[in-house]
Amino acid sequence: MDAYEELIKGYKIFRAEYLGRKFSAYRDWASKGQSPKTLIIGCSDSRVNPAILTHAGLGEVFAVNNVANIVPPYEKSQSHHKSLGAAIQYAVNHVKVEHIIVMGHSDCGGIAALMADDGSDRFDADEDDYIADWVSILNPAKKAVLENSGDSSMEECCRLAEMEGALLSIQNLAGYPWVRQAVAENALTLHAWYFHVDSGELLSYRPEEGRFRRLCR
Ligand SMILES: [Zn+2]
């Protein structure tokens, strides 16, 4: 069965469950519009779907996905990244989410592109110009990691950059005026998460400890 047929097979399972035996509950739920309490900004990576990782149902997660789960700095009226800004603005001002989570992850291809040296055999800044331009938003995170990397391997530097990147995105997020206002009013909390693809462990950043720790035991 090819990948497209797999999707159709999956939809049939969804249809049987939600539009079959749960149909009246589905209609009742669908008629009320959406009111998710959480926006998750995650990577486009197919292994880190936040709704699946959190076992969330339809309507529970407002989602934005992009390469390396990046939030660019706020730019008044001249933003080059209006798509992401519009999603954040809609989530905060209209959906009234109470939590925003930026979720980084291990083995991130976007972060590998960020950390790649010139002449890397995996990425070419000319051929991969869109990727290179996008991930360069995280150059301050790259710089911070390389300045403190010591004898760390490139793989270790990438793991650190994945975490630093999520923290920089949280810092950038806090610079959006409507986010800043909602946080000041205690209506919104920002979180950084990190998902280990290999182990399945989910970590959260603890500001009071200055480090990522397991989200739960
Ligand atoms: Zn990624």
Describe the biggest sheet? 6 strands, mixed
In this entry the ligands are: zinc ion
How many DSSP H or I helices? Answer: 9
Q: Beta-strand level of the residues, as a percent range?
A: 15-25%
Whole-number radius of gyration?
Answer: 19 Å
Strand order of the largest sheet: 2-1-3-4-5-6
Structure, described:
The chain has 217 residues and is α/β, with parallel strands linked by helices. The chain has 2 domains: 1-33, no CATH class; 34-214, 3-Layer(aba) Sandwich (Beta-carbonic Anhydrase, Chain A). It contains 9 helices and 6 strands, in the order ααβαβαβαααααβββ. Strands 2-1-3-4-5-6 form a 6-stranded mixed β-sheet, with helices on one face. The longest helix is centred in the C-terminal third of the chain and has 20 residues, at 154-173. Zinc ion binds next to helix 5.
Topology summary:
Blueprint: H1 3-21, H2 23-30, E1 38-43, H3 50-53, E2 61-66, H4 82-93, E3 99-105, H5 109-115, H6 129-135, H7 139-147, H8 154-173, H9 177-184, E4 189-195, E5 202-206, E6 211-214
Parallel strand pairs: 1-2, 1-3, 3-4
Antiparallel strand pairs: 4-5, 5-6
Helix pairs in contact: 1-2, 7-8
This protein binds zinc ion.
